[in-house]
Amino acid sequence: MKKPLDIDEYISDFPKETQLLLSEMRETISKAAPAAEEIISYGMPAFKFNGVLVYFAGYKNHIGFYPTASGIEQFKKEISKYKNAKGSVQFPLDQKLPLNLISRIVKFRVSENLLKAKLKKKK
Question: The CATH number of the domain where 108 resides is what?
């Protein structure tokens, strides 16, 4: 896959079923963080608001979601039913995305980045 210029181009390179899930992921993140900017970072779609909030990516068998280690830690109980690691979780392509969970994680990351920005200003 060539390096995409934007998220639309990124999504368009996947099979239709995966495109639908990636679009759902994008829309859910966008609604949860309406002030965030869409970017491509490390070749993946990402949302930026006072720093990067989350990344997501399509794969052969899953959608990868990367809300940083703190996002995973904060929701580890709910994420435990999915394959996950320190800063990532994998949502299988043959299951519905847990949109409510994704939204809550993104909102958590927004509040976390706002707090970091506030503390940075005080210094």
Answer: 3.90.1150.200
